[in-house]
Amino acid sequence: MNKNLIYFLLAIITLVASCRKDDDNAFDKSPDERLNETLQQYQAALSGSTYGWNANLTTADGGSYRFYFSFNESNRVEMYSDFDSTTATTIRESSYRLKALQQPSLIFDTYSYIHMLSDPDGAVSGGTYGQGLRSDFEFAIDTVTADSIRLTGRFNGSRLSLRKAAQGDRAVWASKQVTNGVVNFRNYWKIHLYFKRLVYAGTQYELQFDTTLKKVSVSWISGAQTNTVTRGYYFWANGVYFSDPIVNGSANIPGFSITSYNAGTQTMNVTVNGTAATIGGFTTPINSDVRNASNRWWQRSGSGDNYWISFDGWHVNGVDDAYNIKALKNDTADFYFILYKGNTNGADAFFTIYLDQAEQVLDVENGSWVTMNINTSNGLARFNEIDLRDPAVPWPATGAAAQTRSQMYQPNGYYFVQSSANTYDQVSVADPRIWITWYWLF
């Protein structure tokens, strides 16, 4: 064989052997060993934050919840949450673990405050029965830096962001400043006028809170333009803070701290960036969506076989079910809900529905055929009665059913406000302290 060819082959063999040796050095640990090392590094990061972690959890529906976590090396975690006044006041300990699933994951493996958001019992979570608030308690770890950790929920895709707490952050919870925010915010609902505005630095910002999804819509007028943005919100340091600040030119509004409530004027005194401001009631809306909401509300039932229902009837001057319609009953059945069904023939259904407790069937007790007329320029809706559903069964002349019927036909009409994906509020133009909430449960 040619001598040069022999040298060439020997050189190739030597190179291949060298590559194999380098490869062996690059992968001197098994995949399991490398994965365990990564999990140990993540555990060290979680437990290594001296003052714990501030955490913001954003649900799949965009709601924001604030947590405080303190992890230790024994797979125990202490936590607070702004879910309610109890979770904001009482620290709770449970367990956690890090596990390799499709990727390294943080699992809260015993029931704790973070599980309450996912609880399928709507009475616990405040969300939809069967799915809760579309949150998670198992999270895939996306990124870990020196002072933050970002994670994504493995089932609903909620987002959890952890940032190292400062020395005084745990004290904000322990001194009940978060609890104060949760409790004092209840005064907001003591403002009886439906439309509420934050007045800050010469501008009025209309606030519309969705307490189920922890979201708020903020509307304001700038020049000739109406602006509306939606943010998650959470409780912190004696007040309410937004997931992202509201930006209006040079004004930057991160949220507000609640200082007091004046029951006489129904005004909440707050500070924004340390500057005094107020939240109070107003008789008209800013959010321009009212021009379209009434038509959307009608179309949703008018285009199909389902209908809107109200369990509580009219809210009047701070009182739910002001006419006490839920107390109505006949010989065999109890009041269950008010029904409104749009019909393309121009005769909409406005009925009271009773539930026969023995037979477990629904019956119409009283009802009318009505028209809904919408002003296309401003969205105001007016209702007029065409006829009784059954002339042999007239509406009562007095009492809760009569008051409910009479209120529906007030001549000044109504604003419609979409308060969530499946709820609308029908607000009296003549007196915005009066409204009825309609639910879509289909």
TrEMBL record:
Entry-linked InterPro entries = DUF4302
Q: Which domain of life is it from?
A: Bacteria
* Protein name per Swiss-Prot or TrEMBL: DUF4302 domain-containing protein
